[in-house]
Amino acid sequence: MKTENLPALPAEQKRTAAADFARDGFFIAPPLIPAELLARVRPRIDAVYAGEYETGIPPCGSPKGSSVPPTSLVKIDNTHRSDRTIHELVSHPAIGRWAAALTGAKTVQVFATQLLIKPPGSTGAGNVGWHQDYEYWDYALEGDVFTAWVAVSDVTAESGPMRFVRGSHRWGLLKAGDFFGGDLGAIQQRILAKTGGAKWEERAAVLAPGAVSFHHKLTVHGSGPNLSTGPRVSFAIHLRTDQSRFPDGLKWETVPYLNDPDDMQGSPITYRETA
Questions:
Q1: Beta strands of 152-191 (E only): which ranges?
Q2: Bridge-partner residues for 212, per DSSP?
Q3: Is residue 266 part of a domain?
Q4: Is the overall model pTM greater than 0.90, yes or no?
Q5: C-alpha span between 135 and 184 (Å, rounded)
Q6: Count: domains in the chain
Q7: Which of 13, 54, 68, 241 is the most exposed place for a label (fewest CB within 10 A)?
Q8: Cα–Cα nearest to 85, from 128, 124, 52
């Protein structure tokens, strides 16, 4: 689907959404991904998890495929380079259009993605520790950077949904998080110790399949165990705007989880403002 074939977002809806994003550091959009695309992407996720790479390009880190269902959190980087249907999902223009509406961007481009599978019944092994995305990207990317998180499965309150800390994007870059940390309470205390007594107010991102949440690069977020009966499956799509830049002299071989912006397979442009 081309961007120009999408109906325009009403101006008042755009203003309200942008204000909410600026105030809270996150925004939860309605379902944006068509059901037929979700149906096509589910078997492709299983294929990539099993080690089948349609394009011949393995995900970052060349993970070994497995036919055994996971028992702890699975994170596979840049699977969109390995599979055309996954690429279609992460580059869907509806995501780019909403991202532009929230940030005022003239251009929106993917620079990295993560396939996340949280198996049912997981305890601390399924947690995503409280963190800010930018603490993992700050050395290689400056300016407007944010994340779209796409629910592939039904993300219920029981399945370990992502939780945002409202207004935490105004706390600055803390460098106190830990994506892989299982002890959420300990990480929370470490973060709060750096804020000087900030208010900790959480909001769970309960999402229907195909719905998308967006969050600022400095918004603190994490998630607990999946207590439902099925896996929680999602994609984190890391985006940048025309108000971002890579440092001069950056050597791409030193940043294996980021994609060269001139590589349209790894870094598709999902929105570009037209006159």
A1: 163-165
A2: 29, 150
A3: no
A4: yes
A5: 17
A6: 1
A7: 68
A8: 52
Q: Report the candidate in 153, 177, 155 with the shortest Cα–Cα distance to residue 165.
A: 177
- Per-residue pLDDT reduced to its tens digit, 171-220: 999 999 999 998 999 999 999 999 988 999 999 999 999 999 999 999 99
* Residue appearing with tokens 């991202």: 99
Residue 19: both structure tokens together: 């204000």
- The enclosing domain of 26 has a CATH number of 2.60.120.620
Q: Is 26 part of any domain? A: yes
Contact by Cβ (8 Å): 51, 73 = no
Tokens standing for 258?
Answer: 């980021």
Q: Is residue 273 part of a domain?
A: no
Amino acid in the structure at residue 144: D
Q: Cα separation of 21 and 98, whole Å? A: 11
State how beta strands 142-151 and 163-165 pair.
Answer: unpaired
Contact predicate 211/30, CB 8 Å: yes
Tokens found for residue 14: 């755009």
> How many residues can be counted in the chain?
275
Q: The domain containing residue 70 runs over which residues?
A: 3-255
CA angle 219, 224, 227 (to 5 degrees): 145
Residue 20 amino acid letter: D
Give the integer Cα–Cα distance in Å for 47 and 138.
32
DSSP state letters, 71-135: SS-EEEETGGGT-HHHHHHHT-HHHHHHHHHHHT-SEEEEEEEEEEEE-TT-SGGG-EEEE-GGG
